[in-house]
Amino acid sequence: MEFETQLKGLFDDRFKTQEPLAKHLNFRIGGPAAWFAEVKSVEELQESLRLATEAGVKTFVLGGGSNTLASDEGFDGLVLKMAMRNFTIKGTAVIAEAGVISAALARATAEAGLAGFTWAISLPGTIGGGVRGNAGCFGGEMKDVITKVDVLRDGEVVTIHKEDLGFGYRESHFKRHSDIVVRVYLSLTPGDKETLVAELKDKVTARKESQPLYAGSAGCIFKNYEIASPEELERLKTVLNIPESMQQSMRLSAGWLIDRADLKGKQVGDAKISEEHGNFLINLGNATASDIVMLISEVKTEIRDLYGIQLQEEVQYVGF
Ligand code: EPU
Which residue, judged by its Cα, is nearest atom 34 of ligand 1? Predict the structure, then answer.
């Protein structure tokens, strides 16, 4: 097949057919991608997308695989794994290619004496994926450190400034458009290297204490629930004893809700709601995507029936 020959020519041994997605996703679940390539440059991304369009093959751009659930049947198209991992630090300005691992960049910036990004030491996945979902933890969010992003739009590289990226809680422009993040620009502030490096260690420890990092998962599976109005808060207070911090932020931790509903430990096949954190569904070893989907659906039904709250997935689906 001509398409395969072209991709083989472009990527050599970074191109595979029938590649199990389970190998590339933190859930360790998912059937094969018909075609799969590890992309090391913007030019390779441009060219492979062009070839796919020409051949009428659908594509899926994969970041670090931390927030993705692939179906058991896999993906009947081309998966492009973003593996461009170069970055530069000049003064307080950082430029990172989309495939840079967020935690690696958190470490590098702390070691360069730059403050503002240490929270990302706890963030699984790539910076490109992090921008797409406006990922965050420990009080930090991608939108707080970004100034602009280079994207691939209809084959051309275009720059978009932060104000135009539609950032919200776990939301961005990229969830509604087909633009692909290729380069991210961050602005940090000078800080004390030793303090910053110590912060990295504290954050890793805090995460290990509250999240099940020993098992396959997609991090938090649901978005936290945003309370729409003071009236809704009053209604929720009649069915839940809501901690002051969540009332202030007008956001309920989905993990906390799942815990209140006594759903921790619930299992479908080898998929289980973590005992450590209710918003983590873990793969005990042989979970299928169907097990996970069923468990997600049971949680949503239960939380809706108990509290009138509709949880929304944070995880992104491929091949469903
Ligand atoms: N809580 C429980 N039971 C649970 C889980 C949480 O009682 O099973 C309580 C905690 O004790 C705490 C509160 O709920 O009082 C909030 O919990 P946590 O600090 O774990 O934060 P979260 O809102 O549940 C968010 C992010 C996480 C991020 C943590 C830490 C979302 C959906 N989740 O969780 O991000 O790591 O804060 O900053 O926004 C992710 O997005 O994949 C993710 C894991």
Answer: 253
132 is catalytic: no
Active site residue 220: yes
The verdict on 75 and 95 lying in the same domain is no
* Euclidean distance between CA atoms 65 and 126, whole angstroms: 8
Q: Is 137 in the pocket of ligand 1 (CB under 6 A)?
A: yes
Q: Determine the structural domain holding residue 126 and report its residue range.
A: 87-195
pLDDT tens, 130-153?
A: 999 999 999 999 999 999 999 999
Residue 206, domain member (yes or no):
no
- Our CA angle for 14, 18, 24, nearest 5°, is 65
Domain end (from 57, 82, 107): 82
Q: Indicate if 314 belongs to the active site.
A: yes
| Per-residue pLDDT tens digits for 218-256 | 999 999 999 999 999 999 999 999 999 999 999 999 999
* Cα–Cα–Cα angle for 223, 102, 299, rounded to 5 degrees: 20
Whether 314 is in the pocket of ligand 1, judged by its Cβ within 6 Å, is: yes
